[in-house]
Design brief:
Blueprint lengths: L1 H6 L3 H31 L2 H16 L7 E2 L9 H12 L2 H24 L9 H15 L10 H4 L9 H16 L8 H17 L2 H23 L10 H24 L8 E5 L5 H16 L2 H4 L6 H22 L7 H22 E3 L9 H15 L2 H22 L1 H9 L4 H11 L10 H15 L4 E5 L2 H6 L7 E5 L12 E2 L11 E5 L4 H10 L5 E6 L2 E5 L11
Parallel strand pairs: 4-5, 4-7
Antiparallel strand pairs: 1-6, 2-3, 7-9, 8-9
Helix pairs in contact: 2-5, 2-6, 2-17, 2-18, 3-4, 3-5, 4-5, 5-6, 5-8, 6-16, 6-17, 8-9, 8-10, 8-11, 8-15, 9-11, 10-11, 10-15, 12-15, 14-16, 15-16, 18-19
């Protein structure tokens, strides 16, 4: 009996095992949805990223001539990585899946690297804190049907739009926080931080608001606190962090000037950079609440028809953040450690992003508040370091249970849909299990299979382009893996090219002979009438469900940029 007692693992190992199991469960579901459901869940935005990846590889540039960007350019984002994979695989869908999975791995590695700057002790305690924070980062994305919501797509699914911003934040802030613990130069991490600051400066101003300005604001806060406490303003100990913050800012500003010099084609949806009139301040403040509801999961707490689970889970995560804020306020006169520095920069970045959409005419979107997720993760680590030993285990068990319920409530439907509609061996196995009584709410998507059949027909007929509305054309072209290109219009503006996320060279007159026009009941009659007004008769070629394919003897698109 005594020997058995000695062989028992300490509680910390069991807790760490639970956390690792939950993280692994999420990663498996992510992989299933990405690998087997990419085409099923793809929309116009995701398709645009794959098309851009193809053009980047073919033209060997990050700014293909004729491509119209939207709110961001790409230097270290997922499409750039997908372009490299496309050069190897020759299939843009496979390339984007591989790139998305690799970006998820980069998020994990960069987060763990950052958290190691402030965790102490030996295994399993140190690893437990880092992994617990990672679990919070992953599981705090919630929605009843996650594949149709941005909260998880921005990091872990499909084109992982904001993964690069999260990775950049972890690397830069992790490098910055280490200056408060060690006087080492750490040239490798500093060089990587400078490169990411520069690259993200090219991509978008959002990283300037979310990371660079908060770092400078924290340095100002430190200076003011030293003045209030009548301490020297600058000392040998304070200079390294200030130098680091200024160097990141300089690299970021250089990136902003670089993209201004390159001046790629773009059509942004930001709004304006003018100051908000006083009479519009309150409406813009009110607009923050719906955005926060989505990013925090509260939307599914206050809306009818959703599970009460989302109320519990979102309030638990908000409570963790609130507890961390109270703990920091209670020790505001004391110097922050690396953990509190990372947390505070994250909090300032979140509040600064929200404030910028109030005082400046930038349109607020829930995904702009993406720093909420790392804030939850860092708040959880702060709370763990202050809780009594017995309650730490309870908190870990609680979060593990809630994370698994969240996985079941918001993710498994998407994974089942991906497998149910997949022609792969995994899909066949899932359908066989389902036929033998496995309960699943997922259904066969007839429209999805009709677009697949239409795509196969178009490629067999030798077409290179699918002309259609914003929703239809990409849904068809995505099945081709890059062989077909989608060219689209807004539903209310038939035959008028969109003003963003398009490649202008696909709308030339000579392209029309290799293009098929696809309509649905939304725009078919309107399109036929518009063509008739121009004296053009469209020829009906095929029909697949609600999708009807036509050809035209002349180019019907009106090139608005000529």
């Amino acid at each position: 009996m005594a020997q058995l007692q000695k062989r028992r693992l300490p509680p910390g190992y069991w807790l760490a095992g639970m956390v690792v199991f939950c993280i692994f469960a999420y990663l498996v579901i992510f992989a299933i949805m990405n690998i087997y459901g990419y085409k099923l869940f793809s929309d116009a935005d995701k398709y645009a990223d794959t098309l851009l990846s193809r053009l980047m590889w073919e033209e060997k540039t990050l700014f293909p001539d004729g491509w119209v960007f939207s709110n961001q350019y790409y230097v270290v984002a997922t499409p750039v990585l997908a372009a490299l994979f496309y050069g190897v695989t020759g299939n843009v869908n496979t390339a984007m899946v591989l790139a998305t999975e690799l970006m998820t791995l980069f998020i994990i590695v960069s987060f763990l690297w950052m958290t190691f700057s402030f965790t102490e002790g030996t295994a399993p305690g140190r690893w437990l804190l880092c992994l617990f924070g990672l679990l919070l980062l992953i599981c705090s994305t919630m929605a009843p049907d996650i594949h149709g919501n941005r909260p998880s797509e921005i990091f872990f699914l499909q084109a992982s739009y904001y993964a690069c911003y999260l990775i950049g934040f972890f690397v830069v802030v992790g490098d910055y926080a280490r200056t408060f613990r060690s006087r080492e130069r750490r040239l490798c991490s500093w060089g990587l931080a400078l490169f990411l600051s520069f690259a993200l400066g090219i991509q978008s101003l959002r990283q300037t608001v979310a990371m660079i300005l908060p770092l400078l604001a924290y340095e100002i806060f430190l200076a003011l606190r030293r003045l209030c406490l009548r301490q020297p303003l600058w000392t040998a100990e304070t200079r390294p962090s200030l130098f680091r913050a200024i160097s990141y800012a300089a690299a970021n500003v250089l990136g902003i000037f670089t993209v201004s010099w390159i001046d790629p084609l773009h059509s942004s949806l930001y709004g304006s950079f003018q100051l908000t009139p006083l009479d519009q301040l309150w409406p813009r403040i009110q607009a923050l609440w719906p955005a926060f509801q989505v990013i925090s999961g509260l939307k599914y707490s206050v809306s009818a028809g959703y599970s009460p689970f989302f109320t519990v889970f979102s309030l638990v995560l908000i409570g963790i953040v609130a507890a961390a804020i109270l703990l920091w306020l209670a020790n505001i006169r004391k110097s922050e450690g690396p953990l509190e520095i990372c947390w505070l920069v994250c909090l300032i970045g979140l509040l600064g992003t929200a404030l910028s959409t109030v005082v400046i005419g930038i349109n607020i979107r829930d995904i702009y508040l993406f720093l909420w997720y790392p804030l939850v993760a860092l708040s959880g680590i702060i709370l763990m370091k202050h809780l009594p030993r017995w309650s730490k285990g309870l908190l870990i068990v609680l979060i593990c249970l809630l994370s698994l319920v969240n996985l079941r409530s918001g993710y498994t439907y998407g994974a089942q849909s991906a497998l149910l509609n997949s022609p792969s061996y995994a899909g066949k196995a899932f359908r066989l299990i389902r036929d033998y009584g496995f309960k699943s709410y997922a259904t066969i998507d007839e429209d999805y299979h009709n677009t697949e059949a239409l795509c196969d027909w178009a490629m067999a007929e030798g077409y290179d382009y699918v002309y259609g509305d914003w929703y239809t054309a990409p849904e068809i072209a995505v099945h081709s893996g890059g062989r077909l290109a989608a060219c689209h219009w807004w539903i209310e503006s038939v035959f008028v090219p969109n003003d963003r996320l398009i490649y202008r060279h696909f709308y030339d007159d000579e392209d029309n002979a290799r293009a098929v026009y696809v309509f649905t009941d939304r725009d078919e009659q309107l399109a036929l009438d518009l063509a008739a007004e121009r004296g053009v008769e469209l020829t009906r070629q095929a029909e697949f469900g609600k999708y009807t394919a036509y050809t035209s003897p002349v180019q019907l698109f009106t090139r608005t940029w000529d």
